[in-house]
Structure formats: C-alpha cells, structure tokens
Amino acid sequence: KIPVLLDCDTGFDDAFAIAMAIASDRLEVKGVTTVAGNYTLPDVLLNTKRTLSITDPSVPYAVGAAQPLLRPLYTHGHPTHMMEELGDPDIAPDPRGAVEFMADILRESDEPITLIPLGPLTNIAVLLAAHPELKEKIKEMVIMGGSVYSGNTTPSAEFNIYVDPEAAHMVFKSGVPIVMCGLEVCEDARVNPDHAHRLIELGNPTAVAYGNELLRGFTVGESIIFDAVPVAYILHPEIVKTERYYVEVDITGGLSAGCTVTDTRAFHHDDAPAPNTTVAMSMDREKFGELLVELFANY
Ligand code: BDR
Ligand code: CA
Questions:
Q1: H helices present in 148-240, as ranges
Q2: What's the rounded Cα separation, in Å, for the pair 107 and 45?
Q3: Cβ neighbours around 196 below 10 Å, total
Q4: What are the annotated GO cellular component locations (predicted)?
Q5: Is the CB of 144 inside a 6 Å radius of any atom of ligand 1?
Q6: What's the whole-model pTM score?
Q7: Nearest-5° angle of CA 281, CA 286, CA 291?
Q8: Ligand with minimal distance to 184 CA
Q9: What atom of ligand 1 comes closest to residue 12's alpha carbon?
Q10: Per-position b or e across 41-66, b if 16+ CB within 10 A of its CB
C-alpha cells in the first residue's frame, strides 16, 4: 500500500478526496491534517469530522494553522453547509498539532510517505522549515494548487496558492519532489448529475450521502472536484499527462501575487533554472469519473 497524508481545508472537493483515498485498497491513509482556507478553521474542522464520520472515523486527524504565515485569512466568505444532516460528530482530534503529527508519522515510517496538500500550504511550509531532516522521508508532494496559465481567484492566481503565497513559495523552493495538479488538469475533473445518480444507486450510506451532496452542489450542471485529482494521479498516473517545468510563486505582492509562474519557454535560456515540478496538464475525463464511482462502491 502507498502511505499518504492528506492536508485539507475541508470543503466539498476535499471531502471527496478524503473519501476516495480512504476507499482505495491501494492507499493507506495515515491521517488528515487541517488548515484554514475554504473556510475558517472551526468550519474546516466541522467538515473534516463529518467527512471522517461517514468514511472512516478511525483515521486520525490533527488541527493545523488557523491563518496564513504572513497575511490575513482570505476565505470563500460563506459558512459551510456541507452534509448538515451529520451534525457535529464526536471525534476528537489527535492531541498533537498538524505539524508535529505529520513530523512524527514521517519519522516513524519505514518507507517514504506521499503528502497530498489540498489547501493553502501553511502547514506544509512550517513542517519543512521546522523539520528539514524529514524531507527525505517525503516521497513526493502531489499538490492541488496553482496553474500554468490563468487563475481562479485573481486573473493570475489559484485559490490555494493565493491564500498563502509565502508558504507556497517555501514549498516550491524546498527541493522535495512536487507534482502540481493545477487548474489546467482540474478542468478534466468535471462531474455531472449522472455521476451523482450513480453514487446514489450504489446504495451504501457513504455513496448516497456524497451523491446527494453532489446533486445539491450543481449550479451549472457540472462541478469540478479539484482536490480529487491528486488522488486520481497517485492511483492512476497513466490517465494524467504531465510535463516538467520550473515553477516559482510570485510573492512580490503585485498584480500577480500568488501566481505559480511556470517557465514554459520553448528554447533553452542559459539563465533558466532546471525544472523543479512535474506539472499535470490534462487527464482522461471519462476514466476520472469512472474511478470516482468505482471507489465509492468500496464503502
Ligand atoms: C481549490 O480551492 C478550494 O476552493 C478547493 O477546495 C480547491 O482545493 C481550487 O482552487
Ligand atoms: Ca481544498
């Protein structure tokens, strides 16, 4: 089994990623850590507990950063309404904070662990800064965040990177192998009402809850399940097309603050740094949809 740790600002799509990772018999979810992003930390924690309560309450979770390293928290600004019928499940967090929780798991593991960061990179940056000796215990970081071309929160920045650009900058400079699942590949993570109905038809309580949640979420007939892309990549790299590029985050604070500036120049420039990132560019849409439904059949 591939050991993984998920770091989430649990909203709708993070909840899918957690469920899919837990459902896979090829992944071993060592834990879930939480970070403010989609919502403030209390709402993220509530969503995380709801998610674990209907997937696997025995998976440990730990509480992470309530705000970015240097900036005030920018969130989507509306409170969570995710899976309200689950209330406030009584599952206690691990007594360690997110960073120490991850550090202990990395330290104690015999084999390198894959990190799956799905929110702002605050916890991950602190982990790498506080415990640089543990970098070698990280197999790779398969990140949902960033984009090669344009953003979704500003014209040039994707949400997770925009919220904590300084943290993202540290992570991209860390030297740990990175797979960036940005906005381009996420275009291929679109699901439609047919997928929702197929989840409901599976009939198990987890799939039914997620199917209904998906139906509630449709505003334009389709939804993008951004955060499920890293999970799909880890399970089926053959359905994702990647390219190697040098990526650096703009922390200068101007118009393109939080942009993952990607060096796609076709001709070699002597001043160009070597590629530091495997960038996912596209994915087989149909296979992604099939994988999603297939994994929920395991509940
Ligand atoms: C990312 O931002 C959040 O809204 C989602 O959970 C996802 O991680 C997409 O830009
Ligand atoms: Ca997220």
A1: 159-163, 165-172, 183-186, 193-202, 205-217, 228-235
A2: 25
A3: 21
A4: cytosol
A5: yes
A6: 0.97
A7: 95
A8: 1
A9: 6
A10: bebbbbbbbbbbbbbeeebbbbbbbe
